[in-house]
């Protein structure tokens, strides 16, 4: 829990009891505090404000979702793969001009031989679920599955923010920012896989956050019991019964079952759990707290996290295992390779075929360097240098429709600045011996989603990959805005200036989202109007 965030919440809402608020030097602040002091109004705010944010998220992701009624950008892979996956149990090849046939309402033109696909199946099962419910006659059917995940991502962002900051206001702020951000909107309105990674990775991180509190209580109780018995705390307990860590393993396994970069979140947050355990032991007064966490609790955390996450990943391929036509399904049987011998001879041939498939996917990803007009070097991601054009169509008469996957610049650049602020604040707080848990958690999420890509600077990658860690960017921005707004302990003038600054900034953010809305949804607009959005010139076209 961030102490400054708690102060900010109290400064805005006042105490929950029916006590008159302290003078703040601002009539608006006083009125707000008196109003929120009523428990009925407070409950309405605690439930109504998040509901309003979800309504905005649903509207920005569902309204006009069937436009354009054509397969755009990488939907050409994932929508058609999802369709054959649901009909055959594996992803099959398609003939030429299959996109036009699919959009025209005739999707059953697929072939039956397996296609070499490079991403696990779970995200495509989500797309297939939408088509199973709403059909393929409208683009709404093949996009709604990812759109629902995008809405849930907003809800989950608020849930994480609420637990981090202990503040409904800051939770609503975080949810509102991601609800109206262009990257989150576009990636919820097209059937690509990365929003699924973002959701499951954030879900795993949330479970890690809950686990941190669960472990803290049990370590404190264990130390208290030992001291009550007159015994030293020793190295502390090894905790195996950690249900929230098991839940995190399931969630991270699902993230990896959408795209492989989900494994990065598993690895980084797995390391985070060990470090967090170490500091919890230190706070409880356990000697050799670092060694105890690394050598005793660390292996237990590994066992609780990694095997289960990998089992989830393998299970996501159940369609490939239970069918016969998948790519490399009978690689050994048809003479493509040799069965394992020696100590691994007991491994089923189907599992050996699957392992060869995974190795082939790894080789593909490692060597992917085909130039693309919209590839974006990861070093430029935080500065929004090269967004991705998903769709552009000249409609004649000086009008066009476009879908440009670009974040709201003021949200994204503000979040980038907020990361620097949090890094500095962590260093300062560590020097002063103050808590850094909230900031460290947020920075861990950004590191898990972003830093691994710096190992692949020559690989063909895109700006829209950032959706996987955007919730953590928004949380960083929320923490920074809370610091700018100030707390109740600040002088009235400082607090008033801070609140006005935040209010003006949020007003600019909302107006910018309104301005960019046509560019995020393919809404027909005059070409001259669309050109007004290319702030960085040709790099945004």
What does this structure look like?
62% of the residues lie in helices and 3% in strands. It contains 20 helices and three strands. A hairpin with a 2-residue loop joins strand 1 (388-396) and strand 2.
Write out key terms for the chains shown.
541 residues, mainly alpha, three-stranded antiparallel β-sheet, 20 helices, globular
**What gap, in angstroms, lies between the N and C termini?**
42 Å
Q: Strand percentage, roughly?
A: under 5%
Helix content: 55-70%
Assign an overall shape.
globular
- SS summary, helix count: 20
How many E strands?
A: 3
Q: Provide the structure class.
A: mainly alpha
Blueprint of the fold:
Layout: H1 3-13, H2 27-36, H3 39-62, H4 75-88, H5 98-103, H6 122-134, H7 139-165, H8 168-179, H9 182-189, H10 194-228, H11 243-256, H12 262-283, H13 289-315, H14 318-322, H15 349-366, E1 388-396, E2 399-405, H16 409-432, H17 437-450, H18 470-485, H19 492-521, E3 525-526, H20 527-531
Helix pairs in contact: 3-7, 3-8, 3-9, 4-6, 6-7, 7-8, 7-9, 7-10, 7-18, 8-18, 9-19, 10-11, 10-12, 11-12, 11-13, 12-13, 12-17, 16-18, 17-18, 18-19
